[in-house]
Amino acid sequence: MSRIRAILTPWRAIAVLIFGAGAWATYLRFVEGWRAATNLSDGQPWGIWVGVSTLCGVGLSAGGFAIAGAVYLLGMERYRPILRTAVIIAFLGYLTVCAGYAWELGLPWNFWHPLVMWNRSSVLFEVVWCIMLYTTVLALEFSPALVEKIPWQGVRQFYLKWHHKVLIALVLVGVLLSSLHQSFLGGLFILFKGKEYPLWYSPYETTMFYLSALPAGLAMVIIALYLSMRSLGVKLDPRLLQEISRMVTPLLIVFALFRFTDLLRNHAGEYLFLARPETAYFWLEIALFIGLPLVLFNLPRIQASPVGLYWASAVTVMGFITMRINVSITALERATQTHYVPKWPEMAVVVMLVTCAVLAFRWAVLHLEILPRAPKATRWLAAPAKA
Amino acid sequence: MSSEAKAILIDITKCIGCGNCASACKEAHHQPEAPEPTLSATAFTVVETRGDKFVRRMCLHCQDPACASACPVGGIKKTAQGAVRYDGSKCIGCRYCMIACPYGVPKYEWSKLAPYVTKCDMCAERVLAGKPTVCAEACPVGATIFGPRDEILAEAHKRLAEDKNYVQRIYGENELGGASVFYLSDLPFEQLGFITPPNPTPLPTLTASALGEVPTVVFIGGSLLSGLYWFTERRRAVALAEAKERAEQKRR
Description:
- Chain A has 387 residues and is mainly alpha-helical.
- Chain A has helices spanning 2-7, 10-32, 34-37, 47-59, 63-73, 83-104, 113-116, 123-147, 153-187, 205-231, 239-265, 277-296, 300-303, 306-336, 344-367.
- Helix content of chain A is 71%, strand content 0%.
- In chain A, helix 5 packs antiparallel against helix 6 (83-104).
- The longest helix of chain A is centred in the middle third of the chain and has 35 residues, at 153-187.
- The N and C termini of chain A lie close together (12 Å).
- By secondary structure, chain B is an alpha+beta fold.
- Helices cover 35% and strands 14% of the residues of chain B.
- Chain B contains eight helices and nine strands.
- In chain B, the strands form four sheets. In chain B, strands 8-1-9 form a three-stranded mixed sheet. In chain B, strands 2-3 form a two-stranded antiparallel sheet. A two-stranded antiparallel ribbon of chain B has the order 4-5.
- Chain B is elongated, with a radius of gyration of 27 Å.
- The N and C termini of chain B lie far apart (86 Å).
- The mean pLDDT of chain B is 94.
- The chains are: A mainly alpha (387), B alpha+beta (252).
- The interface between A and B is large, with 57 and 55 residues.
């Protein structure tokens, strides 16, 4: 019994549950079909596999290009200790997004079609290409962490020498590609004029997506760093978290100004206080993504405590997810007269994909040189025998 | 406008709601016979009852279709004959076209494991062979007529001029850049469930202007970032040189 308990820790039990549910959901999706696995319909053909998996997966990975650009191009050396963390979060984020298409696409085996069948007038075509190229760039940016572990010195040196030569170009291309597709994910919604509820339709949805991804991506980096310090024995100057959080506030203010100026410019002001469900979702988004984070990140007590910054970042990320769900789901419900609530297998797949990314991140921090770690402390030699 | 371009005119004042068009369409496309209330994966056209009016729904075959501009693999094309055709062999199943369509026309085969998008193809094969669409052929009262686009449009204008009971508007002539299916009605179109066009020009012009900014973003962004990098490196080099100089002075 104690042996089972030692192997099956609560977290492992949860992981088993998540993968069990994910496997069942996958069975439903590929064997029983769409109706058994999803609540998608002709009125809402995208659901959370696009709204959360793709839109949030890409958006929350924005820390990768932001930090890489800050360190390599702007010379902000103070962020160098967290560079690899930001890059691996982005890399895993994009891998998760790509993997998610196996479930999301109706004909996933045709995923390679955009490579050879082009439609330059399609925003989605542009997005697909950018995501493919940027995932490659991230793999290359991240590769030294793996190559370092190759036991042959010659191979290592050869690779790292070349990598060093092209690194700046890689980072520059990465920033450009990111800026393009982070924006164009918002650009997808420009075509839905007349269908998108006025509180979310904007001809500048591109800029909106870009400006919102930056603070959310940084918040994600704070979350990952805090959890690594707490659970993976990472030793890091806590002031670094504070440093990152200082960038979040101005970014959020810029986004908030843009958001409200744009609303008024689109004459959507009259929709701000209507007694409709959309209004509630809108203010929830504003509270979680703008209001609360701006207050929390600027309370001295929170700034001084890593756990406080962790929770402030968590709220920001929640707000970000709310925003993306609103743009892709809430905003369409009135025009298409479809009320969509995801079915459990849809959620199980998303949770399973996120869990994979978290486990891969954990493995990388434990086995690669991502973050400085304290030597392993032996806490308890063995669980005390119970009577 | 090429003269091969064809069009359909649906005159709501003439429709008797018999549903022959819908069943002929289903037969021609090998779909289950049972009539359906709304457009679906197995019904490319249906006749809706609105008060005492019958309104036939189908793809409008836009001149500049939002669905075609949305498709990342170019799987939807406007043909010279006027049809907006879907090519399932290219489709990846992203379903962007379904949301992009302002009229909610493309449907999905949700009950299949390898689902395709479905929509009216304006009987493309028949039209190429010089025949009218089955819906036009099946109509017993001439509420749907088919022919060259310019002639059909001229006929619609003639009817409006001759009978002032018509709402003086051809739905589909200018909506979102125009279509290849036109409607005439004696009741305002909004009362019959037609959408008010959200844009004076075709929807793809909206995304085209965003996509047009790509080269600018790449060029200006690229130059700006390279400039910043150069500046960063220069600052680093100067700082290094100064530090060396200071060390030199100290030694003396």
